[in-house]
Amino acid sequence: MSSQGIPTVDVASVEIEVLGKRVSVAGISAMPESVVSAAVESIPFQRWLKTITGPAGILSLSDERGTRCSLQGITIQSVDMFGKRVGFVKFKADIVDEKTGAKLPGVVFGRGGAVAVLMLLECAGEKHVVLTEQARVPVGRVILELPAGMLDDDAGDFVGTAAREIEEETGIHIKTSDLIDLTALLDKETGQKMFPSPGGSDEEITLLLYRGHINPEALSALQGQEQGLVEHGELIKVHVAPYRKLWRYTADAKALAAIAIYEMATKEGILPELSSL
Hints:
There is one protein chain. By secondary structure, this protein is of the alpha+beta class. The protein is built from 6 helices and 15 strands. The strands form 3 sheets. Strands 8, 9, 10, 11, 12, 13, 14 and 15 form an 8-stranded mixed sheet that branches. A hairpin with a 4-residue loop joins strand 9 and strand 10. The radius of gyration is 22 Å and the shape is elongated. The N and C termini lie far apart (73 Å).
């Protein structure tokens, strides 16, 4: 109870060390300290912290006076659990530009890394692309997109995750050795990832390429197949479309970014030749 007789609400908080400075991480009112601690120890939060304090991170920005930005505090706003582990973390980071005194927009939806695969199948002299049709609640509509999935841990097994997601979402088993990392072709300064929504989310996507051959019967059998893990809420239908129409066929940012990298890499002749299956 405050001195004015107004009930006070305890706010749980923990302290972390960031570049030699103690920084408070607090939860919103009524959030238990155990939840705040779980958020701080989670993979999305730790990956964000590593990035922001790294060589290219915001807290490493500097000018003639030294460090440009400082982290004043963090508020954990919500935590979504995937079973026993933290899946998503939403938090606000108070970061101040020391030169102007202005605060940087700091609301973060932390979800971590993911992979997506541009899957091209050649049939009768034409390239086809494999897409998944999924109901996406955040945008309120069904989207045609590349097979994709989140990384389950911090080991960074992008290729293994991609092969598993392809099998789960399309029913096609592929060898990890047949996957080519398209984002690895970007300049190192980019982080060699694709950031679909950097203004609000930390999500970074590795875009991979798979190329193979398929006969007309097998291609036709893929169309309309229902796949996905029902227990994970995946309602997925497989679609096959001519690659030449893909850029107009989907609004999926992963697909559009993969097209751009694939086309430019092909134009510059830096992709290996397609081998026979």
